[in-house]
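JOB MANIFEST
job_type = single_chain_structure
chain_count = 1
residues = 425
[input]
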Amino acid sequence: MLSDTPDRPAKRTKATRTPFSVVLRLAYRNLLRHKGRAASILASVAFGTAALILSQGFVEDIFVQLAEAIVHSQTGHIQLAKGGYYTYGSHQPDKYLVADVEGDRERITSLPQVDDVMARLSFSGLLNNGKADLAIIGEGIEPEKEEKLGTFLKMSSGRRLNAKDHYTAILGHGVASALKLKPGAQVVVVVSTSDGATNTLDLEVVGTFQTFSKEYDNRAIKMPLAAAQELLNTKSANTLVVALKRTADTKEVARILTERTVWRDQEVRTWDQLNDFYPKTVELYHRQFGGLQLIILLMVLLSVVNAVNTSVFERVAEFGTARALGNRSGLIFRLVMLENTMLGVIGGVIGVGVAWAVAYGVSKVGIPMPPPPNADLSYTAYIQLTPQAIAVGFAISFAATVLAALVPALRVSRVKVVEALRQSV
């Protein structure tokens, strides 16, 4: 029986968006089904993450060791001196003396970040071995305090100064070599005072030392503070050297000391301000290892892009079948992107684990390194796994994995169903 009611077009139902939980479950299953393809992408991501973290950690260790060598072999963390000393004091140090050494020492030591404070008296003059003279820069130091600070000071021969020494000295390696001096030798220090007088002092050499700076070792000698004060006819000192419990507190303590001493015509200098070659060395190493890290980054990008492209386009027929069954192209795009996002996260975590294992192993053995610029001493390098290095390495590898999947995901989601199904024929 025919109906008198005219035919009406059927209502179209609006396609519902596939829930994220379903897409996530499909992506997880796809990774398990394509274990070989997933493993190749994971290997690329993990290698890239580990390489980036380890290279950055290696560079960070160089900077840390160089900084600690500067602090613990020569300058300390912070130095306090009379205003103008660091500009003009090298020529007339006796005109730039700290007015109240013990009072300043007590005030600085009261800060909780400070470990110790030591006085130094600087001078320049000539060192005579009985046959020849050599221009030197000298320091009167407090032996016990300096021994605690100078953990990076390497004794080439002999011993360090101690509290019982008076008319003794230790010489920089270059000074000892130039004058052919060894422990037990007798030398004479000759200085000129600001009023034109000439003072001399006989000293016994008890040791020779090396620091991070070859230039410094070629001219430096150290003697007990009391002997230097006798030589210069003073009871004061030029600088107060501050040793901190942590190098990281340097800027904060320097700020506090600057606020407290600005009205007393004193100036505060940090270890990196006293050694201008440090930022230059850091810049040099940044350029050298920056190029290396750029190469590693390009290798990571290329390997990840190749692995992702291969994996996606080998599955064109699979995606065509999914489209033929009624799935929309948006689902294919979301599925590919989610799969690679998961691979990026998992590969990044694996890379961090690999980097940690390698860093731990290297830290047990160490990497022998040649002397840095302007130095004679070689050192052993390690790997500093800083949170910043880990975060940057993980983020770059993860971003590379996701971005590498973007173009292939767009292309495969727009392939016509018929063309996609032909791939399986």
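[summary]
The chain has two domains: 20-68+279-422, 84-264.
Residues 34 and 311 are 9 Å apart (CA to CA).
exit_status = 0
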